[in-house]
TrEMBL record:
<dbReference type="GO" id="GO:0004170">
    <property type="term" value="F:dUTP diphosphatase activity"/>
</dbReference>
<keyword id="KW-0546">Nucleotide metabolism</keyword>
<comment type="pathway">
    <text>Pyrimidine metabolism; dUMP biosynthesis; dUMP from dCTP (dUTP route): step 2/2.</text>
</comment>
<feature type="binding site">
    <location>
        <position position="83"/>
    </location>
    <ligand>
        <name>substrate</name>
    </ligand>
</feature>
<dbReference type="GO" id="GO:0046081">
    <property type="term" value="P:dUTP catabolic process"/>
</dbReference>
<feature type="binding site">
    <location>
        <begin position="70"/>
        <end position="72"/>
    </location>
    <ligand>
        <name>substrate</name>
    </ligand>
</feature>
<keyword id="KW-0460">Magnesium</keyword>
<protein>
    <recommendedName>
        <fullName>Deoxyuridine 5'-triphosphate nucleotidohydrolase</fullName>
        <ecNumber>3.6.1.23</ecNumber>
    </recommendedName>
</protein>
<keyword id="KW-0378">Hydrolase</keyword>
<comment type="function">
    <text>This enzyme is involved in nucleotide metabolism: it produces dUMP, the immediate precursor of thymidine nucleotides and it decreases the intracellular concentration of dUTP so that uracil cannot be incorporated into DNA.</text>
</comment>
<dbReference type="Pfam" id="PF00692">
    <property type="entry name" value="dUTPase"/>
</dbReference>
<keyword id="KW-0479">Metal-binding</keyword>
<dbReference type="GO" id="GO:0006226">
    <property type="term" value="P:dUMP biosynthetic process"/>
</dbReference>
<dbReference type="InterPro" id="IPR036157">
    <property type="entry name" value="dUTPase-like_sf"/>
</dbReference>
<dbReference type="InterPro" id="IPR008181">
    <property type="entry name" value="dUTPase"/>
</dbReference>
<dbReference type="GO" id="GO:0000287">
    <property type="term" value="F:magnesium ion binding"/>
</dbReference>
<dbReference type="InterPro" id="IPR029054">
    <property type="entry name" value="dUTPase-like"/>
</dbReference>
Length: 150
């Protein structure tokens, strides 16, 4: 079954040259996000930076977007998203930004229009939290954090 939605996308002023998020293969899960940095920025080992993408979105209620690292950047350069997966709320209208961190040993340069991360859309159920005095019993109960063994 294929779920299909329309999501509005807006290029922010001054970013007309920055590519729109793009799927790199027909059935890719993620739309690659392009850096909207001015010129180039360099992340020293251990350094983090909030990278602009030059775009904003309006998704329908019931969708979210997740910002995830690109595995190639992680493997080759130790570049990942610090808050992965980043959460883009359906009602957020600001610029999408990517919090990158350099966990590698070498400085890493990011140029304008380079692909820095990917954005995956997910359906989010609408949940109503109902406060109660007691919860239903289960076999697991409160067991967790490895209580079933290694
Ligand atoms: O990687 C990210 C994560 C978040 N956001 C934007 C969209 C999101 O809707 C908003 C808030 O994100 P989140 O809820 O993760 O952050 P918070 O620290 O809880 O901030 P807030 O109090 O604004 O919700 O920031 C991004 O652009 N990139
Ligand atoms: Mg929040």
């Amino acid at each position: 079954m294929i779920l299909s939605y329309y999501v509005q996308i807006n290029k922010l002023a001054g970013n007309e040259d920055v590519n729109l998020p793009c799927k790199m293969s027909e059935q890719a899960s993620g739309y690659d996000l392009y850096a909207a940095v001015a010129g180039e920025i360099v992340l020293a080992p251990g350094e983090r930076a909030l990278i602009p993408t030059g775009i904003s979105l309006a998704m329908p209620e019931g969708l979210e977007a997740q910002i995830r690292p690109r595995s190639g950047l992680a493997l080759k350069h130790g570049i990942t998203c610090l808050n992965t997966p980043g959460t883009i709320d359906a009602d957020y209208r600001g610029e999408i930004k990517v919090l990158l961190i350099n966990l590698g040993q070498e400085p890493f340069a990011i140029a304008r229009n380079e692909r820095i991360a990917q954005m995956v859309f997910q359906a989010v159920p609408v949940v109503n939290l109902v406060e109660v005095e007691e919860l239903s019993e289960t076999q697991r109960g409160a067991g967790g954090f490895g209580h079933t063994g290694k």
